[in-house]
Write a structure and sequence with these properties.
Order of helices and strands of chain B: HEHEHEHHEEEHEHEHEEEEHEHHH
Largest interface: A-B, 34 and 36 residues
Distance between the termini of chain A: 31 Å
CATH class of chain B: Alpha Beta
Largest sheet of chain B: 8 strands, mixed
CATH topology of chain B: Rossmann fold
Mean pLDDT of chain B: 92
Mean pLDDT of chain A: 94
Number of helices of chain B: 12
Helix content of chain B: 25-40%
Structural class of chain A: alpha/beta
Strand order of the largest sheet of chain A: 3-2-1-4-15
Structural class of chain B: alpha/beta
Low-confidence stretches of chain A: 599-605
Radius of gyration of chain B: 21 Å
Number of strands of chain A: 23
Oligomer: heterodimer
Helix content of chain A: 25-40%
Number of domains of chain B: 1
CATH topology of one domain in chain A: FAD/NAD(P)-binding domain
Distance between the termini of chain B: 64 Å
Strand content of chain B: 15-25%
Shape of chain B: globular
CATH superfamily of chain B: Thiamin diphosphate (ThDP)-binding fold, Pyr/PP domains
Number of helices of chain A: 23
CATH class of one domain in chain A: Alpha Beta
Strand content of chain A: 15-25%
CATH architecture of one domain in chain A: 3-Layer(bba) Sandwich
CATH superfamily of one domain in chain A: FAD/NAD(P)-binding domain
Strand order of the largest sheet of chain B: 2-1-3-4-8-7-13-9
Number of strands of chain B: 13
Chain lengths: 605, 351
Amino acid sequence: MHPTDTRDPQYYHRVVDCQWGCPAHTNVPEYIRLIADGKYTESYMLNRESNVFPGILGRTCDRPCEPACRRTRVEDEPVAICRLKRVAADLRGEIDHLLPKAAEEKNGKRIALIGAGPASLTVANDLMPLGYHCTIFEALPKPGGLMRTNIPSFRLPVEVLEEEMDMILDMGVEIHYNHRIDSLKELLDEGDFDAYFIGTGAPKGKELNIPGRTEGSANIHIGIEWLESIHFGHIDSVGEQVLVIGVGNTAMDCCRSSKRLGGKDIKVMARKSRPYFKASPWELEDAEDEEVEILVDHSPQCFVIEDGQLKGMIFDLVEWEENEKGRLVSTKNGETFIPADDVVLAIGQDNAFPWIERDIGIEFGEWDMPVVDRATFMTTREGVFVGGDAAWGPENIIWAVEHGHQAAISIHNYCRGVPVTDRPPYGMNLISTKMGIHEWRYSNDYDPALRTEMRYADLEKRLSDMKVEAELGFDLKETVREVERCLNCDIQTDFTANLCIECDACVDVCPVTCLTITHNGEEEDLRQRLMAPADNTDQAIFASESLPQTGRIMVKDEDLCVHCGLCAERCPTAAWDMMQFDLLNPYAGHQSWPEKAITASTTSV
Amino acid sequence: MSYIKKPAARHPKLKVNSLGLTVRDYEGSMSTLCAGCGHDSVTAALVQTFFELDVEPHRLAKLSGIGCSSKTPAYFVSEAHGFNSVHGRMPSVAAGANAAHRDLLYVGISGDGDSLSIGLGQFCHAIRRNVNMLYVLENNGVYGLTKGQFSASADIGSTSKGGMANEQGPIDPVNTALSLGATFVARSFSGDKDQLVPILKAGLSHSGFAFVDVISPCVTFNDHQGSTKSYAHTRSHMHEVIETDFVPLRTEITTEYSEGSVQGITMHDGSVVKLHKVADEYDPTDRRAVLDYLAEVGSRGEIATGLLYLEEAGADMHGFENTVDGPLVEIPFADLCPGSKVLEEVQKEWW
């Protein structure tokens, strides 16, 4: 193996599993340490830098960071990263003076943002401080997009949503409500703007075209439209017996909303079995806690209508088996009638661009989606960018935010005549955490505590009102316990080969057997020759330069390192050091980092 | 020393031995020695040895005297028996314990001060008696606990941290052991577990006094240029005479060596020690030849390492004394103390 280049920011970035897993690369371990120090405001601001909506995401994020968390490999359950984010948002102090401000002087460039969802808002957040004039066109009377209309208030209180959006809008973003763009061509032809960003989401709920659909339409609802109507108060009740078709996260919001609108007997109908559910496990748990029933292997056959009134649905009872090609195929075992007063369809969302003309230079590809560059977010028409769910179909808020950041970089380039492919680099700072012989600037003691369970509002109380937030958040005691579970993966074990005297102290003390001094070889061979086999190839192994005394190399399997720092504590020559890694994410306007930051060794920049 | 305990988290794919234990189950408390101390590596080698030999912790007795080395029994096999004795007196405590309970595995940990200065007499007599134990001498050439004075094993010309050269000749523990008739004599290096672990295994299987001199650098007081017991000096001057391969009783012998270069010695417990000779003419069972060879290697300033001498046939302390077969604790009280009538009968013999 060639010696690992730890001065490439992406090597250590990959070690910080949560940050690597987060589309916006939020510096999770540092914000958790700030919470541990009681610095909620600082923690909130650090979050905001990358994910823009800590209060919203602390309640609603899809949490790609949690399945990635190292703790899932060392024990079982990840750190409750998402809910700690909410702690920072809940307990933060005054932040007005810390928020980005619109530039005092405008740069004369005008940007049109279509749709006021998280993607567009992020673009505005990044461009307003650079002097751009941002104009949002929003079809609805209020901003937020699917964050507002699709996430019920019992999961995301409206005050939290609005406060964080206002932080951006209050910079002086021009916003036109009830202003649906029906023709992009018209907007482009008017020529009022220097660049255009499309952040219109995936607003079309999928249909279920089976017999009875049209006749029963009064009581058959499209999930996302139905949730939107609930949000705006157009719907405030539902029948006693409700069937929700589909088991994605929208289905969970629909069944839980039904519970709050007077539904008594709520059933979620799944075609397949549990391992194939699309909903996040925690959302499924929350729904089941609220006494929603989930039925598996029920495939919708038809709606049953009597005298023009919906009576229920007939389902095929199916069994699934993998065929020779590894695809799931079903066999029908029978059928059953399930009565219902209302049916909510939550079987997915589609993009829809009837308002984008096909002759204006924007190429459309597969699934009738605009062709969008994965790195620059630009369409085939220069100056027109797409992000969020509108780009490649439904994802989630945190992806939309990251799309917004990247699109803002592109727009900033484009408006200055810099090629949009010219992406600013990532940087890093690496700072020793050594405080004394065996003291570090972080809590390096491994805490075997199990994941802190979330507490919920009393069932009766929360089901009585759409606006009662279901989750109570962590109290101080729970927070203190949970922050200590973080393994501080950003405190990197940084190795300097020419200091090593090969005394084996680090190898001997490592609790998770991740260090080996051995003769060099190919990676595949090395992985099997270590003190414990490094079978998880998703995780890197570090290989040092040749060691001075024997010419062997130090190898570290990054997979299970708990970052306890004992290797560095037992190292007599400080060949190992525990260095805090700070990834410098590029945003619009930060086109480069000081040379020192990228190649930093022990000093801060 | 570290302030935190070693995290309980462990690698999920650690090997398990026949007792269902992992290597981590043979650990002790956290070391309080200096970071990088050779003794910690010896501890790790012992931990690996006990794990690989499926040693039941309750069948192990750890004994030591005073010194940095003598602290280390606290750092391995917490569940074993232990006795931290007076300075230099570990051999007699070990002999006493062994006399009472011959079925335990005895491991004595000592240092160059403990064995070659204050305890030299005890050390010599344990060899004479051939007490059945593994005796590890962690040899760093200095008194670490009292801040780095030369010990009795320091070589002539080796310098202290302050630059002063040692003028008095060393007591070489390997030579001493060989000349006193030790039946198992080895020298190794804390920084070479590939060599050390098989030697420790063979020593634990040896019936009699198994002596292992381990060069174990003192990283604080004797790891500088000018020291002849530093990591760098030991590495560059090591002369491996014998490569040892330990084959436990139930394992099939698979390693193959070229004809004539390997000598297999069967131990009392049925396991086999395979000695792969690096120097063709070397005979690890010929005491005089070994002494001559070591003298020659030593005169070149090199450090001969490996399982240097092995004699499995000799009697141990229990053989010399013609003692009972089992541990005293297993003898019924009536047999152990037959009463005053029997005593009277015995005494009549001298009337």
